[in-house]
Specification:
The complex is a heterodimer of chains A (about 190) and B (about 120).
Chain A (H helix, E strand, L loop, with lengths): L1 H7 L1 H9 L3 H22 L3 H18 L9 H19 L26 H10 L2 H12 L4 H8 L3 H21 L11
Helix pairs in contact in A: 1-2, 2-3, 3-4, 3-5, 4-5, 7-9, 8-9
Chain B lengths: L1 H13 L9 H41 L4 H15 L9 E2 L2 E2 H10 L10 H4 L1
Antiparallel strand pairs in B: 1-2
Chain lengths: ~190, ~120
């Protein structure tokens, strides 16, 4: 009965979480754990570490859900917490280094090259990127943040954010080619 | 061109929903511990606040009491003397001095209203 209510109205689920209802919290956890874990795994390479971060993320979600104002998407609100925690983890462990490099012209890329890539292949390649490249790439390409926002989040310059993105794209294409993932036979750099 | 590359990556990555090994029970346990710690902290703050309030109240009561400092000594002495019989009171000793000596000392210091010249007369 309770689960049925939640599937119909997410606001009810959120309100019950705000009232510290364990059943609602459990339901929220089960519903979003995979989505949030997928995000964290793009930033944190190790799956055990990613699960630790995921646990911290849910603790913070339940701690802060009382301050959620029902403005904007709740899933987006949770995703931002997950991204911030993943970045915080990288920063705490001093994994993020940004190598300032000159802009390199982006190589043309045929869309077919990644046509048949599986999610796992993409993740494996993203995880192989150096932490600085990976963070900027994830934030810009997948999360959709602007360079100005990324610069603020990572405490770097906009120029660094842009150059990291270009280097990340280049490196990712190299990795896709090197690992010979499905669909890459069409790859021409 | 890189737009389409980004779009492909975004589309593919957004479908990625891996199943973590993390169980609800471990998150729930952490929530219980955290909430317990929060309650404990709240109780500690209440205890500290109550302690401060008690100290403040004691200081206030002590300050506003007519039996503070020198007045307190005088009050105790007077109470003690009033318990003694008339005959033994003047010569009764409180530490090094007799009651009569203490009375005279208080009076000469202007701490007592002038009355008879000694305790015998007062009584």
């Amino acid at each position: 009965m309770l689960l049925k209510i939640y599937t119909v109205d997410e606001n009810k689920l959120i309100r019950r979480c705000q009232d510290n209802d364990r059943t609602a919290q459990k339901y929220l956890f089960e519903k979003y754990k995979s989505t949030l874990y997928g995000i964290i795994l793009r930033y944190v390479k190790n799956s055990a570490t990613a699960e630790d971060v995921l646990s911290d993320v849910f603790i913070q979600i339940f701690d802060k859900v009382g301050s959620y104002q029902f403005k904007g998407s709740f899933e987006g609100w949770m995703k931002r917490i997950a991204v911030n925690h993943a970045l915080m983890h990288l920063r705490k462990h001093k994994n993020m280094t940004y190598t300032e490099e000159d802009f390199i012209l982006d190589q043309p890329q045929s869309p077919e090259a990644i046509e048949e890539l599986e999610e796992q292949d993409i993740l494996a390649c993203i995880q192989e990127l150096p932490d600085g490249y990976r963070s900027v790439f994830n934030l810009y390409v997948i999360e959709g943040y602007k360079h100005r926002e990324i610069a603020e989040m990572l405490d770097i310059s906009i120029h660094t954010s842009k150059s990291q993105l270009i280097m990340a794209r280049k490196k990712l294409k190299e990795l896709l080619k090197r690992n010979n993932y499905p669909g890459l036979q069409n790859y021409r750099s | 061109m890189s737009e389409s590359f980004d779009e492909k990556i975004r589309k593919t990555a957004s479908h990625f929903r891996p199943e973590p090994n993390l169980k609800w029970s471990s998150v729930e346990k952490r929530l219980e511990v955290q909430q317990g710690a929060k309650k404990q902290m709240m109780y500690n703050w209440i205890a500290v606040a109550a302690g401060i309030a008690l100290i403040a109240l004691s200081v206030f009561v002590f300050q506003s009491s007519p039996t503070s400092g020198t007045e307190h000594s005088l009050y105790v002495s007077a109470r003690h003397i009033s318990d003694l019989s008339t005959a033994e009171a003047p010569n009764h000793r409180l530490g090094r001095y007799s009651v009569n000596e203490i009375y005279n000392a208080y009076q000469s210091a202007g701490l007592l209203p002038s009355a008879s010249s000694d305790l015998n007369g007062r009584r």
